[in-house]
Amino acid sequence: MNIGQASSFSGVSAKMIRYYEQIGLIPRAMRSDAGYRNYSAPDAHRLRFIRRARDLGFSVEQIAELLVLWRDRERASAHVKEMALSHVAGLKAKIAELQAMAHMLEHLADHCHGNDRPDCPILADLAEPAGAEQGPQARHKSPRFGVDTPASSRHRAAMVAPS
């Protein structure tokens, strides 16, 4: 089958098929006399496997390892299960991180007046140094809007800079 047919069968775009071939995730396709790629049924199934693994969030490196395990009929399933559970733990950690970000943004948005005044706790929080303690409980004093922020410093500098 040609690359378009392999793409349709597997759900992997032709561009990604070429990329996977380039990085060695799939073997180089056989070429027709005209130079077109020809994929076998096992190649197409391998691509479908890759697509499903990508849909589940596995990295390219993890997929390479999964492909090795998939082809090894004498492997123990315990290693595959261990990989899957490790991946689940990583996904749960990422979910917790995303939820914390969403809660922080909701908290900041709740405290933003959203009017025509320039005071904005969202921007004030973003101006905090990286690594500063974050979270609703970390804010004990009101931010000083427009004071010593990069934007106000630039504005003051522009006003006093010689032309």
From TrEMBL:
What are the protein's UniProt keywords? Cytoplasm, DNA-binding, Transcription, Transcription regulation
* GO BP terms, alphabetized: positive regulation of DNA-templated transcription
Stretches assigned to the HTH merR-type domain: 1-69
Q: Which InterPro entries match?
A: CueR, DNA-bd_dom_put_sf, MerR-type_HTH_dom, MerR_fam, Tscrpt_reg_MerR_DNA-bd
Q: Where in the cell is it found?
A: Cytoplasm
Pfam families annotated for this entry? MerR, MerR-DNA-bind
Please indicate if the UniProt record lists NAD as a keyword. no
Query: Which Gene3D superfamilies did the record assign?
Result: 1.10.1660.10
The ranges of region (Disordered) come to 130-163
Q: Which SMART domains match?
A: HTH_MERR
Q: Name one GO cellular component term.
A: cytoplasm
State the Gene Ontology terms under molecular function: copper ion binding; DNA binding; DNA-binding transcription factor activity
**PANTHER family recorded for this chain?**
HEAVY METAL-DEPENDENT TRANSCRIPTIONAL REGULATOR HI_0293-RELATED, REDOX-CYCLING DRUG-SENSING TRANSCRIPTIONAL ACTIVATOR SOXR
This chain's protein is named Cu(I)-responsive transcriptional regulator
